[in-house]
Design a protein that fits this description.
This protein has about 425 residues and is α+β, with helices and mostly antiparallel strands. Among the domains are: about 50 residues, no CATH class; about 90 residues, DNA Binding (I), subunit A; about 70 residues, SH3 type barrels. It is about 30% helix and about 25% strand. It contains 10 helices and 22 strands. Strands 11-8-5-6-7-12-22 form a 7-stranded mixed β-sheet. Strands 20-19-18-17-21 form a 5-stranded antiparallel β-sheet, with no helix packed on it. It has a 4-stranded mixed β-sheet with strand order 2-1-4-3, sandwiched between helices. A hairpin with a 6-residue loop joins strand 17 and strand 18. Helix 2 crosses helix 3. The longest helix has 22 residues. It is globular. The chain starts with a strand and ends with a strand.
């Protein structure tokens, strides 16, 4: 049960209210639905009492694939709203590679002797690859969006996923890896991401994992992060003072030295995101991934992106109220593309697209309700619309059922396409 965002009659953000209170306001005509995702109502009457707001903190857990978002009431420690934003950085990278391959093939066919032009371009300061810039842009989109709906007075974000200085100079050994120092949490969080939260030797999951040395300390092994792996207790005991290669896993050492790709993506974008958050003019608190896990473990919360977001930074209260919160699952889909010609697998154009995106008042990606009253497909369908110029639309429902060829007259808009799809988390 996430709270409902409330706007005043002149569009100013007020304190979120309980869903029951929102239904009461809607039933009595004192408010109207302003936005479906996230669900927001706007009051129709001016009220001085409703103008009293309390501070809320927007908390972010930036990730390579998914970013956790939480809005926490500062005075009560209640999580009033949560979301998980799934990025499309990999899809952008794949699209760029496909476009580059088609472009090179075309140039090879038509301008065979053209001189290379890759040396006459200069990248501006602060340039990020498009797939990385997308992560920053979508996160900022939701920061600005939530600031319009909630009286946010401060922001908390994970500045670094892992404190690399603590990783390289961890002054801990032996059982201290399992016994709650913050440096230990930095190391363990990195290793959990690195080894996929499973035993490096037998692949066991959902079992307590111990930090162990690939080359044992008794054999001259160091405490560097490149010499550490995760093992379940039986494997750790059985391995003893053997190296990973002697234990029958020579690939473990190579995998331990391999960089963590997702962590590199987050570390690349962290400063750009931080600078944009500072530009909002709000106080910005930063924390590390190890500190986040320390808070989440202390509060007894399960691993989830929005739980991590709620636990970012030293501002996390001693008692965090997450009862009944169901995060909104947000997936970035983009706003379409400007490619006017579709290509076959050899890079030759086979179809062309109209410049017009909107037909009969609808655009592909809109969430709509189709009430079909005639024909063999009678019924009520709610989902994403795929438009056609001839007026026969397709709709994909929340259960992934695809109904084709419905007349545009049956459709009513629920939520305009804004580059994202939405779903409620189960449970």
């Amino acid at each position: 049960m996430s709270f409902v965002f409330v706007l005043s009659s002149d569009g100013q953000p007020l304190d979120p209210c309980h869903p029951a209170r929102a239904r009461q306001l809607l039933d009595h005509g004192k408010a109207a639905v302003w936005r479906r995702y996230p669900f927001t109502i706007r009051l129709s009457e001016r009220s001085v009492a409703e103008r009293v707001t309390h501070p809320h903190r927007l908390k972010l857990d930036p990730g390579s694939k998914t970013t956790g978002i939480a809005v926490v009431a500062e005075t009560t420690g209640r999580v009033v709203w949560a979301g998980e934003l799934t990025h499309r950085g990999q899809a952008i990278r794949d699209a760029l590679l496909s476009r580059r391959a088609s472009r090179r093939s075309r140039r090879q066919r038509k301008t065979r002797y053209r001189q290379p032009r890759f040396l006459n371009r200069r990248r501006p300061a602060g340039w990020l690859a498009p797939s990385l810039q997308h992560r920053v842009a979508t996160t900022l989109t939701w920061v600005n969006r939530l600031r319009r709906f909630v009286p946010v007075t401060a922001i908390s974000t994970e500045m670094v996923r892992f404190d690399t200085q603590l990783l390289e100079n961890a002054e801990i050994s032996g059982v201290a890896y399992q016994q709650g120092t913050l440096a230990g949490y930095e190391v363990r969080e990195y290793l959990l991401e690195k080894w996929g939260r499973r035993c490096a030797y037998c692949g066991a999951t959902n079992t307590p994992l111990q930090v162990e040395h690939i080359v044992p300390r008794a054999r001259g092994g160091s405490d560097r992060i490149s010499n550490l792996a995760l093992a379940c207790e039986p494997c750790n005991i059985k391995k003893g003072t053997q190296t990973a290669a002697e234990f029958g896993h020579p690939d473990i050492q190579a995998q331990a030295r391999r960089p963590l790709k997702d962590a590199a993506a987050v570390n690349t974008t962290r400063w750009a995101l931080y600078q944009h958050l500072i530009a909002t003019g709000l106080p910005v608190e930063v924390g590390t991934g190890g500190h986040t896990k320390f808070n989440r473990t202390r509060l007894g919360l399960e691993k989830a992106h929005w739980h991590d977001a709620a636990c970012v930074g030293a501002s996390t209260p001693e008692a965090l109220d997450v009862r009944g919160v169901r995060p909104l699952l947000i997936t970035a889909t983009g706003h379409g593309n400007r490619q006017m010609a579709g290509l076959n697998r050899y890079g030759f154009p086979i179809r062309h697209r109209q410049r017009k995106k909107r037909h009969f008042g609808f655009q592909t990606g809109d969430i709509a309700r189709a009430t079909v009253t005639t024909g063999t497909k009678q019924g009520v369908y709610i989902g994403r619309v795929a438009v056609r110029a001839i007026g026969a639309f397709n709709i994909t429902t929340t259960t992934s059922a695809k109904i084709q060829g419905l007349n545009h007259r049956f459709f009513r808009t629920v939520h305009r396409s804004d580059g994202y799809t939405y779903a409620a988390a189960l449970g």
